[in-house]
Backbone:
């Protein structure tokens, strides 16, 4: 998002740059950087070899795979379905549209533990949905699939809410123009609509992904927490804390931070690159 | 207009002053406890407040905080001002001593019975009629039996479950290797590892998953009598562990707040006949003979072994079994 623009900024015609930048840096330091550096400091108390040993244990590695894999799939599903939802909400007018619109934000408002318990109740072997899935051989609760479902649930609003305003601003006349110039439907979508939506979609994806990686409350209920199979990284952190192993817990936390930051940064780069390509 | 403001201000000051003066005659205590003791301490706090008012004339209000035992201990270490802690295992109170020195090393010897005024044990909760015919620990590892227990890495109760199973295997004349094999087998029958004891109870009762729940005796009694009468029954294994959830005074806090006398009395009253009666009513096993006799019907006969007898201290038990890379981890990561 703004990262690339920030460095290339020269002089602005708007006054107040110094003051607002100062405030921004102060605010970000207080809210984000200080807690994060404390995490790094705490993690370093154990020494490098202990750190490396903790973060590369097979169990830790398995948990990264589960967490980042499930978060990625969840965000991907949300990117696709969120786009469709946003499209329907913006482009079509039908009774109950506002209700539907409000419904999108519910996963934001619901405490995640409530979401987790509800989903588990629905999807477990005797639940309303689970009882029909079980005979088909689909184990929805207490499996990686359950984690993906929970993470999809909590990430839904991000894509819808980032794509919606862009779609709203997109003039349908553009599409009509493309059609009148002889473009097919697919061509119009690919060459006219997609370039406009792409950055918002990426942002939504990144937000949903980042949110899902850190999610704990809902997942612990539905995952079953089996070591090596459905144990998410945040749970691993809790088990370390339960042993009063603060250094180990923060070590795992640092790894999550670094991976997340690298992924968000690369998404931003992609963003910037696609913005340049279509500009 | 101006005078009205002044008057309001004066009134407000008077109100606050009166409030503070009134507050001087009341003492507040904070008892930081673990999850399943909520109802027990609700009753106990009321009884103790009455007792304290009668003997000293001061009003005492006891505030409660509940959560996972380890999480609560961490909160106290990080500065939650607990006058007393009443946790699931000595390991967590030991951690408060080790990490923050808020109480002395000999804390467990300061009150009778290892500072555990009431005890409990680990029993089986099965579905009505016991369809899988589960009678003892060996039945848990029969093919087709599914066992629900929380994760010992995150739950204090689950550590008692694990140690009870291990102790049973040892008591059967097995050695360390046999016990390890038994525990390994047992956890192969566990489909879900909830993060806490209440979570497991929900999995078993509400979601109908599993054939048997390993549970605190007081939770099992509560479930079979109050949550779902006629839906579950308790099976007492031939042997189990004597779980001793300890209580302790947090010296640094009570000395700073000047609440030592009342906090001490609060813990001691747990050992009195009234305190023991309340514990028994909430399905904890009392220590006092008179009360044990009165509630004998309620608690099944089980041969109980203690943690000290088989594992030494909690610190040792933890290092061998629950530490990262310990025996519990080896079940899921063989060959380490």
Residues:
């Amino acid at each position: 998002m703004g990262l690339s623009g920030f460095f290339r900024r020269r002089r602005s015609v708007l006054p107040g740059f110094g003051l607002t930048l100062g405030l921004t840096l102060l605010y970000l330091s207080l809210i984000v950087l200080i807690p994060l550096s404390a995490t790094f400091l705490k993690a370093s108390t154990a020494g490098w070899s202990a750190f490396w040993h903790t973060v590369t244990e097979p169990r830790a590695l398995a948990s990264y795979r589960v967490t980042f894999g499930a978060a990625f799939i969840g965000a991907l599903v949300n990117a696709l379905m969120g786009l469709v939802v946003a499209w329907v909400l913006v482009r079509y007018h039908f009774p109950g549209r506002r209700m539907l619109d409000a419904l999108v934000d519910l996963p934001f408002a619901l405490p995640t533990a409530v979401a987790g318990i509800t989903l588990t109740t629905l999807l477990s072997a005797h639940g309303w949905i689970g009882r029909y899935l079980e005979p088909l051989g689909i184990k929805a609760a207490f499996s990686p699939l359950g984690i993906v479902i929970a993470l999809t649930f909590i990430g839904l609003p991000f894509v819808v809410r980032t794509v919606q305003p862009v779609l709203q601003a997109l003039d349908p006349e553009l599409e009509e123009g493309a059609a009148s110039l002889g473009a097919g439907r697919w061509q119009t979508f690919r060459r006219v609509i997609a370039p406009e939506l792409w950055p918002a979609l990426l942002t939504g994806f990144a937000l949903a992904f980042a949110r899902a990686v850190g999610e704990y409350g809902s997942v612990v209920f539905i995952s079953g927490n089996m070591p090596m199979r459905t144990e998410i990284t945040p749970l691993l952190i809790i088990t370390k804390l339960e042993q009063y192993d603060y250094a180990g817990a923060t070590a795992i936390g640092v790894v999550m931070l670094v991976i997340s930051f690298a992924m968000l940064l690369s998404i931003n780069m992609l963003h910037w690159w696609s913005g340049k390509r279509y500009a | 207009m101006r005078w009205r403001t002044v008057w309001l201000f004066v009134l407000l000051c008077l109100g606050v002053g009166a409030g503070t003066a009134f507050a001087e005659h009341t003492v507040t205590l904070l008892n930081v406890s673990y999850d399943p003791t909520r109802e027990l301490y609700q009753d106990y706090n009321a009884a103790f407040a009455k007792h304290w008012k009668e003997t000293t004339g001061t009003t005492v209000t006891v505030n409660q905080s509940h959560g996972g035992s380890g999480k609560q201990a961490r909160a106290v270490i990080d500065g939650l001002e607990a006058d007393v802690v009443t946790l699931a295992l000595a390991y967590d109170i030991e951690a408060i001593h080790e990490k923050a020195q808020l109480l002395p090393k000999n804390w467990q010897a300061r009150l009778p019975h290892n500072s555990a005024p009431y005890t409990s044990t680990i029993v089986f909760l099965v579905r009505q009629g016991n369809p899988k015919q589960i009678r003892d620990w060996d039945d848990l590892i029969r093919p087709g039996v599914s066992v629900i227990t929380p994760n010992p890495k995150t739950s204090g109760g689950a550590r008692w479950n694990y140690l009870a199973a291990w102790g049973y295997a040892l008591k059967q004349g097995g050695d360390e290797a046999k016990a390890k094999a038994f525990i390994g087998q047992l956890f192969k029958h566990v489909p879900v590892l909830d993060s806490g004891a209440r979570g497991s109870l929900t999995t078993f009762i509400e979601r109908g998953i599993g054939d048997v729940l390993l549970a605190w005796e007081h939770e099992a009694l509560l479930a079979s009598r109050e949550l779902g009468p006629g839906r579950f029954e308790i099976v007492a294994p031939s042997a189990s562990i004597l779980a001793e959830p300890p209580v302790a005074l947090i010296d640094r806090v009570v000395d700073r707040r000047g609440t030592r006398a009342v906090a001490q009395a609060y813990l001691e009253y747990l050992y009195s006949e009234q305190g023991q009666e309340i514990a028994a009513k909430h399905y904890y096993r009392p220590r006092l003979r008179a009360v044990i006799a009165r509630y004998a019907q309620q608690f099944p006969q089980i041969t109980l072994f203690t943690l000290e007898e088989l594992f030494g201290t909690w610190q040792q038990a933890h290092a061998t079994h629950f530490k990262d890379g310990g025996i519990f981890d080896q079940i899921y990561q063989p060959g380490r």
